[in-house]
Amino acid sequence: MNDFVYSYPTKVYFGQGAAKKALTAELVKFGKTVMIAYGGGSIKKNGIFDEICGLLREAEKEIVEFSGIMPNPTYAKVQEGAALVRERKVDFILAVGGGSVIDCSKIIAAQAVTEEDIWNMEFMEHKYPTEFVPMGAVVTASGTGAEMNSGAVITNEETKQKAGVLGAYAAFAVLDPAYTMTLPEKQVISGAFDTLSHCMETYFGSPRETTLSDEIGEAVMRNVIHNIRALLKDMGDMNARSELMWASAMGENGILKIGKVTDFQAHQIEHQLGAYTDCNHGQGLAVIHPVLYRHMYQDGADQFARFARNAWGILEEGKTKEELAEAGVQALADFVKEIGMPVTFTEMGITDKSVLQKVADSCNLTAGCCKKLSREEILEILEECF
Ligand code: NZQ
Ligand code: ZN
Fold first, then answer.
1. Range of the domain at 269
2. What's the CA-to-centroid distance between 198 and ligand 2, angstroms?
3. Which of 94, 106, 342, 349 could form a disulfide with 152 if both were Cys (CB 3.0 to 4.6 A apart)?
4. Do 55 and 156 sit in the same domain of this protein?
């Protein structure tokens, strides 16, 4: 196991009525002006906006609205939000939405208190913000786990990069599974697949010997697989929704990463695909993962064989290690089909094949879980995904 330091700044309120409990207890710690940041309006249709604003008024807060945060939030939107925070002297940002709203808010929280351009600061000067407008997160779409980490994925339309930027941690997170009830089925499943992806990208990192983090990761993966199936039988299954919501937070709150160097090569490829096509994150991952792992499993046969046994319950029954490892990758590919996710970029609606070269040329190459890929092999993988 690698050395580590672990502490957690985000307080989690989970379950029915969590927003009332959280806002009543937490908002007294912050100033009067609260900016509610949200997306394209789903929270206005489903009543969450009214409920949250009611709680803000009960807490005697002045409300500033910042709306229109798009899926795959842009850097321009971050700048718009930061300008509003400065203009209205906002004391606290309350992000109400999925990963996109929470991510955008994390970087607004950093950009609003510095004259420096956060993108340049992080990517050119390799300096990271240390001061933020405090913020909280109310999750309405789970999967990314954005509520429990300080990373944000932002699309810079000028530079054609979709990249991880470090911003604020939420002081508290509200996870009420009932808030996800109006989320379209496609988004529920693609969010849950994103969680599975976070677990896999961590699991296949290094070190190669199995750690406690890997064993916890296996439990989270089994849980996600089981509860996606349960939810597809009954989208009203609140227990399955609750499990998936907590699994989502567990996937990205750092616990599975303790003592590990993660891989995240699938994410690096998918993010650049997103930069060029604005595609859905979970869907992109569902297409990429099985193809990527077919290129990798032989180099990491021990861990892929473990994955087959412990995530998918595949029995060894005379299989060689490589055959078992391959069966695990096949089980993942079969699962993608079973849960109705796309298996090709074409099925996702991506028609312009010329983006593949651009993605291969611009995506980050990770240290590699068991195999460091070349740009040529990434292009091959992308072509196999088409
Ligand atoms: O904008 P509104 O109208 O709210 O609609 C949203 C949006 O269209 C809708 N939605 C959310 N809650 C709803 C709802 N519709 C009905 N009822 C509700 N309760 O869902 C759509 C998608 O929302 P979005 O926030 O984009 O989805 P998701 O949570 O999957 O977030 C995706 C973004 O997070 C990044 C992705 O790259 C992508 O940009 N990620 C962030 C990570 C992180 N910070 O840790 C890690 C991930 O790997 C990921 O990269
Ligand atoms: Zn993800």
1. 185-384
2. 6
3. 106
4. yes
